[in-house]
Design brief:
Blueprint (H helix, E strand, L loop, with lengths): L5 H5 L25 H8 L4 E6 L3 E9 L3 H9 L11 E10 L2 E8 L8 E9 L7 E12 L3 E11 L2 E14 L6 H25 L1
Antiparallel strand pairs: 1-2, 2-8, 3-4, 4-5, 5-6, 6-7, 7-8
Helix pairs in contact: 3-4
Length: 206
């Protein structure tokens, strides 16, 4: 599934020129702690999305999916099928799998004349209490043309309702190219919400 903007590409992983020593430890998944206002927005079905520039570009999307945690987790964990629904994800292939982890190769499309970005991710489940499910990932150096790509998913029951799930994805990235501020802003306004809408549709279709 391929779209036409660099900002959309920045969200693909399932949605980078710093030294790797800065990123020695994988990210620790953290459940979302909404304010009262955010809780009302999420309960109405709104998607909370933000993108900001620091040492790395940080992108976050949070939304309620009208499905049980197990159904949402099944989609999030199935990275081999991510190209079926993640915007701008061209291909994914799991190359090695173990108990609670896998390694996968992926290609994310960028608009012409930029080169597509290829990378290898190490993805692992992260232990969480109760019905909360989480995973974290980071790219392996020496594979592909991305400098840094790391992040996490957390999915958990929403407001005690077993039929609704709060899904949160946070990603840090450096694609190894200059990303204009306007692209980062556009990602928060358009492409990040589109990714969560795609997750909702894919969960419903399974």
């Amino acid at each position: 599934m391929r779209t036409s903007t660099l900002a959309a590409a920045l969200t693909a992983v399932f949605l980078l020129a710093l030294p790797q020593a800065v990123l020695a430890a994988p990210p620790t998944p953290q459940p979302f702690q909404p304010s009262d206002a955010q809780r009302e927005r999420l309960d109405r079905g709104e998607i909370i999305a933000r993108a900001e520039r620091g040492d790395l570009i940080r992108m976050e999307i949070v939304a309620v999916v009208d499905a049980p945690v197990a159904d949402v987790w099944r989609v999030v964990w199935d990275f081999g099928s991510a190209a079926d629904w993640v915007p701008d994800m061209i291909s994914t292939e799991v190359v090695e799998r173990g108990d609670g982890w896998f390694t996968a190769d992926a290609v994310t499309g960028l608009p012409f004349p930029l080169r597509d970005r290829s990378y290898r991710l190490r993805v692992a489940r992260h232990p969480m209490p109760g019905d909360v499910r989480a995973s974290h990932w980071e790219n392996e150096t020496g594979h592909g043309n991305i400098n840094v790509l790391r992040g996490f998913w957390v999915v958990e029951p929403w407001q005690g309702d077993p039929a609704r799930t709060l899904a949160r994805q946070v990603t840090w990235m450096d694609f190894g190219l200059i990303v204009p501020d306007g692209m980062v802003t556009r990602a928060a306004r358009r492409e990040l919400p589109a990714t969560m809408e795609a997750l909702r549709r894919h969960v419903r279709s399974r």
